[in-house]
Amino acid sequence: MELNSKKLERTSKIVFFSISVILSIFLILLTDNIMSDIDSVTTSPMPTDFENASLIDNYNKDIARSDDSIRILSIKMERLTKTIETVVMRREAEKESFDNWLSTRNTIGSPTNDVEVLARARKVDELLKVEQEWQSQLAVLEDSVSQIAKYRDVNYIKIDEERQRANELYFVALRKYDLKVFLIRLLIVTPILLIGIFFFLRFRRSKYWPLFQGYIIFSLYAFFFGLVPYLPSYGGYVRYSVGIILSLFAGYYAINSIRKYLEMKKKELEISSQERARNVQTEVAEKSLHNHICPSCGKDFILKTWESPSDGGKPIPVVTVYCRYCGLELFSNCDACGHKNFLHLPYCSNCGHTTKK
């Protein structure tokens, strides 16, 4: 099987990145389990922890007794109401009968029935009196129910006041608990982030960089995303502040790195082209030839001529032998076969003879 260095390079990048991602995923899952287990170390406060249970129990007992009394009185009131309804029906029936009889008597005009008139009127009055007595008893019961209900409502108010007091204490304790748990989690995650920063600064060029890269991905996720479900209301300030600090640090590092690189390239271009040619590495030369750029200054070595052919075609690209920006020799003829080669690759592409630098 023919070895393709470009495919091997692409495959290596995919494999290395896959190793980094897989390692970071398992580290993230492990940290998530550790974070979730922190809740078992500390106990979260509950509102009932701050309530006066015996006091609330006494209030509830008073409320239960009041409800029992109201239920008993309600049964009596219901019976009285039915009794009053019966008396009212009897009185109305008696009055209707009396009115009919009285109308008949007036028509006949018999004076011997005066005694009966008084008797019938007295019977209606007696039924009315009985109705009024029952109404008075019903009013007394209603007043008793009202008084008991007021006493019960007072107990409800006292329970609400006690629970309000307990809730105030609970929220204070909950804020302390959230702060405690957040600090514990922060103490776990912050060293992870610092180690990730150290790995980035120290081992970027290590042959085991994919492993360090996986840890760095994990550390960034753990701090900026893994803490999100556990952040209290003020936790965002910590996370965003650290993000700002890291952004400033990364910006400072990137600016200095770019400046150093530009200064290095500037000093490198001041060196003779022969010495610069000797310092070009084979890997850099391969990428430079593939992208048709100078391996020293990074500029394009293809020149487009503006003299069009007679048929009116497009400008013709011409490959320059020397870089027109830094003067580095790019192509030379093979000593063995005379074939023109990219000077910075080790062998002639036509005969395999060693190229000169």
Describe the structure.
This protein is mainly alpha-helical. The chain folds into 2 domains: 223 residues, no CATH class; 70 residues, no CATH class. It is 70% helix and 3% strand. The strands form 2 sheets. A two-stranded antiparallel ribbon has the order 1-2. Strand 3 and strand 4 form a beta hairpin. Helix 2 runs antiparallel to helix 3. The chain is rod-shaped and about 160 Å long. It starts with a helix and ends in a 15-residue tail after the last strand. The mean pLDDT is 78.
Key words describing this protein structure:
357 residues, mainly alpha, 2 domains, two-stranded antiparallel sheet
Question: How would you summarize the topology of this molecule?
Answer:
Blueprint: H1 5-41, H2 53-108, H3 114-202, H4 209-224, H5 235-269, H6 273-279, H7 282-290, E1 302-304, E2 317-319, E3 331-333, E4 340-342
Antiparallel strand pairs: 1-2, 3-4
Helix pairs in contact: 1-4, 2-3, 3-4
Summarize the structure.
This protein is mainly alpha-helical and 357 residues long. It has helices at residues 5-41, 53-108, 114-202, 209-224, 235-269, 273-279, 282-290; strands spanning 302-304, 317-319, 331-333, 340-342.
